[in-house]
Design goal:
With about 80 residues, the chain is mainly α. It contains three helices and no strands. Helix content is about 65%, strand content about 0%.
Length: about 80
């Protein structure tokens, strides 16, 4: 997962080490947010947490929800 995220990061990261750190952070945020959200009984609060994690992960990665990604036949889905 980290390597897929790392490949998808902006080329604005000055070093490969920084890209790896960002990819690890996004993976931890995504996985951790999902695990915590699944433990919450309040569905609205769980949805809010997942949405917040998604928004921050997309922001860290330099991605936009509104961006139209063109997928190649060999593209890997996240």
């Amino acid at each position: 997962m980290v390597s897929v995220l790392e490949r998808g990061l902006n080329a604005n990261c000055p070093t490969a080490r920084n890209r790896r750190i960002l990819a690890q952070s996004i993976a931890a945020l995504s996985i951790g947010g999902m695990i915590v959200a699944r433990t919450i009984d309040d569905r609205a609060l769980a949805d809010e947490l997942r949405a917040a994690c998604t928004m921050v992960a997309l922001d860290i990665g330099g991605w936009s929800r509104k961006r139209n990604f063109k997928r190649s036949p060999s593209a890997v889905r996240l």
